[in-house]
Write a structure and sequence with these properties.
Blueprint lengths: L6 H4 L1 H8 L4 H10 L21 E9 L4 E12 L2 E5 L9 E7 L2 E4 L2 E8 L2 E7 L2 E5 L5 E4 L3 E5 L2 E13 L11 E8 L2 E7 L15 E9 L2 E4 L17 E2 L15 E3 L9 E10 L5 E4 L3 E4 L2 H7 L4 E7 L5 E2 L6 E8 L4 E7 L1
Parallel strand pairs: 20-24
Antiparallel strand pairs: 1-2, 1-11, 2-3, 3-4, 4-5, 5-8, 6-7, 7-10, 8-9, 9-11, 10-11, 12-13, 13-17, 14-15, 14-16, 14-18, 18-19, 18-20, 21-22, 21-23, 23-24
Helix pairs in contact: 2-3
Length: about 350
């Protein structure tokens, strides 16, 4: 059996908090729901027309359960008088709802959104209906009364004062992510990363358009790490690129904060790397990648890096924040090499 993470150590609620997506108190609601899954017919799940353009919108709303304002990103499809929205639920971020626009009002009836899994339990999520006002060009949708989602009668998402505003995403080169730790516990190897939702100039970019990719160096030969359904039992298909906001609530945290790594030859790896990928546009996609950040795993590899090929050195703390070269403590030393690659090692000063 794989690791039991925080479930047995600190309880079901604490594990959700670690994932960073669902509020601790709201997570406890899932225990009350414990849905007995009856898989719905495929036609019951809302999907927009094939080939329709998915436009990025900024979400602003007030979460009444935790009494906090929240902002994130959703996707909207406009198809004549029909409007589709993806991402209104924090529990099922790829779930769609469908409404119809008439006289400046979009009416969304109650609808089944789909099934999401947590720790081996499957839950049927329902959208409980909502009404949005729509401006003339549909660039702003507003629902002052908000909306809820529910599982077996237990309310999960609950928002009021909701505004969706069309966003303009410009292509940008994402900032280089960092690996702050690669270690082993009783359940396996895991990596901790800091993946900024910023570009190389420090400007904010859209997390919904950001992904990351892990790489492995074996004696100078580099390959992409693959997340397979054999190793990651709570993902639906093999992945080599992981969306920034993705979590399986088990092995993979949102934003790569902690990701468990599987492989029979990990002891043979010289380094593990990470890069960010930023993709703008739906039909006409444009993608840019960050530099690769390499985290050295073997002393021999570290000694090879510390040569005259080093052209620039920077230091970061374990939260990924750049610090002064004179800083002390446990730091990440990042070295830019003459060939353009980036290497990093832990140092104590």
């Amino acid at each position: 059996m794989k690791k039991i993470t925080l479930l047995l150590l600190a309880g079901f609620v604490a594990m959700i908090a670690q994932a960073g997506v669902i509020n601790q108190d709201k997570a406890a609601k899932l225990q009350n729901a414990k849905a007995n899954v009856t898989v719905k017919a495929e036609g019951d799940i809302v999907t927009p027309p094939a080939g329709a353009e998915q436009m990025l919108y900024n979400f602003q709303g007030h979460d009444t359960y935790i009494n906090q304002d929240k902002t994130f990103e959703v996707f909207v499809v406009l198809d004549n008088n029909d409007v589709y929205i993806k991402g209104l639920s924090e529990y099922l971020t790829d779930g769609w709802v469908k409404g119809t626009i008439a006289d400046g009002v979009a009416t969304f009836p109650a609808a089944y959104m789909g099934i999401f899994e947590f720790w081996g339990d499957a839950y049927e999520l329902n959208f409980d209906g909502a009404t949005f006002t729509v401006n003339d060009d549909a660039s702003v949708l507003t629902a002052l009364d908000g909306y809820t989602t529910s599982v077996e009668g237990e309310i999960l998402d609950e928002f009021i004062n909701v505004t969706l505003t069309k966003a303009v995403a410009e292509i940008a080169t994402p900032a280089t992510p960092t690996i702050t730790e690669f270690t082993e516990d009783d359940y396996g190897h895991y990596v901790k990363m800091t993946i900024p939702a910023k570009d190389v100039d420090g400007n904010d970019i859209f997390a919904a358009l950001l992904s990351y990719q892990l790489l492995v160096d074996r004696n100078g030969e580099q390959s992409v790490y693959e997340f397979t359904t054999d190793d990651y039992e709570f993902i639906e298909e093999n992945m080599t690129v992981v969306p920034y906001n993705f979590t399986d609530y088990y092995d993979i945290d949102v934003a790569g904060k902690q990701v468990y790594i599987y492989g029979d030859d990990i002891d043979e790896w010289n380094a593990i790397g990470v890069k960010s990928i930023y993709t703008v546009g739906d039909k006409s996609r444009e993608t840019r990648e960050s530099e690769i950040f390499w985290y050295q795993l073997k002393p021999t590899a570290i000694s090879e890096v510390n040569t005259n090929n080093e052209v620039e050195t920077s230091y970061y703390d374990l939260q990924g924040r750049k610090v002064d070269a004179n800083a002390t403590g446990l730091l990440i030393k990042q070295m830019r090499m003459q060939d353009g690659t980036t290497r990093a090692v832990k140092v104590m000063r």
